[in-house]
Specification:
Strand order of the largest sheet: 14-13-10-11-12-15
Number of strands: 15
CATH class of the largest domain: Alpha Beta
Helix content: 25-40%
Shape: globular
Largest sheet: 6 strands, antiparallel
CATH architecture of the largest domain: 2-Layer Sandwich
Distance between the termini: 43 Å
């Protein structure tokens, strides 16, 4: 049973956690990794590595389909936000190769990539969510400060700013592309890894406090457990509905979990849950393989476990880089002229114009 991860980048620890799960279960299988950069570190720890065109390139889909068929992949997991709509939109073509798509369906993508719709979704479930405005709905002179300005469509905390004056709010609302303005929440920021199988059943909810973040990804944190957050995450997963793992973010503002974002993919700090005793890669692989596995109750992991992430270097000669870069795949059996790949930018442009 082979699995594939897209845009693997620096996710070395994640791939190693899945390798350990294979060994623990005693099943055979290959971990296939793809990325557009031949120097992506995680390519070095995969059983099969491929350099692919950028996700929004016309030939990307055909190349991915060829790899899935060539490697006899059973499931494909996205690791960055832009890959989610691409996989969801072409689920039927991908699954025709025999590979299940481990991400939400297109209707749910529309909720997760649009922070305005995400906010409305939280409220529809009766969950606390940040007060939000679109540019033009809020009078800078009469607003309460501080406020938070971020892209309505975006990821990795890019172009997000704290506005403390009317002048800053006016500037950032224009500077940030397709901005959304929200109340500035103060309190611990909690990310919950909500691991669902491909039928949508929640296998685990592992929450971690983000203490320090680098480029939108947690670098220092600790595991926590809040029954109210875990229960809310289950409701969110069931309502989307989730397919495969998702991450849910909230800020505990004045003691109240206030929900902010959903990412329909595995979070960067997800291996922390494995270290804390929630061996969700093993549970997920067992479900994919049709093997019986006991799933413990939610919260059955060590809390107060701090984690501090560091970089690890791989050293490659020029010849090794060239060899890896040469492993580019040309689509043969799955020539798909005229079929594009939708990106978050496409979702944004279409919706704003509607």
């Amino acid at each position: 049973m082979n699995i594939l991860f897209t845009s693997v980048g620096r996710r070395v620890e994640l791939l190693r956690a899945f390798r350990a799960a294979y060994e623990n279960l005693g099943i055979t299988g290959r971990i296939v990794a793809v990325d557009s950069d031949p120097l992506a570190p995680a390519l070095r720890v995969a059983d099969a590595a491929y350099v692919v065109p950028l996700m929004d390139a016309p030939e990307h889909l055909g190349v991915l389909l060829e790899i899935l068929a060539r490697e006899d992949v059973s499931a494909v997991f996205p690791l960055i936000d832009p890959d989610v709509p691409a996989l969801a939109d072409h689920r039927e073509l991908i699954e025709a190769t025999g590979a299940r798509v481990a991400t939400v369906r297109s209707e749910a993508v529309e909720i997760t990539v649009d922070k305005w719709r995400t906010n409305e979704f939280f409220r529809s479930l009766g969950l606390a969510a940040a007060a939000s405005w679109l540019p033009g709905e809020l009078d800078p002179a009469a607003a309460g400060y501080p406020l938070f300005v971020k892209p309505r469509f975006g990821s990795a905390s890019g172009e997000s700013f704290k506005a403390e004056t009317p002048e800053q709010l006016t500037f950032f609302s224009r500077y940030v592309p397709t901005a959304i303005v929200q109340e500035y929440l103060v309190g611990p920021e909690i990310t919950s890894d909500v691991v669902c199988d491909l039928e949508g059943e929640v296998l685990a909810v592992v929450s971690r406090e983000r203490i320090r973040v680098r480029a939108g990804e947690v670098s220092i944190g600790k595991t926590v457990f809040d029954p109210a957050i875990a229960e809310a995450c289950v409701r969110i997963a069931e309502a989307l509905p989730a397919v495969g793992p998702i991450t849910v973010q909230c800020i505990v503002d004045r003691g109240v979990p206030t929900f902010t974002e959903i990412n329909a993919r595995l979070g960067g700090g997800a291996p922390c849950g494995v270290a804390a005793g929630a061996d969700w890669p093993r549970w997920l692989l067992a479900r994919l393989a049709g093997m019986p596995v006991e799933i413990p109750p939610l919260g059955s992991y060590q809390t107060g476990l701090y984690f501090s992430r560091c970089d690890e270097s791989f050293y490659l000669s020029e010849a090794e880089v060239e060899q890896l870069a040469s492993r580019r795949v040309r689509p043969r059996r799955h020539a798909l002229p005229g079929i594009g790949v939708r990106t978050q930018r496409d979702v944004r442009c279409r919706r704003v114009g509607s």
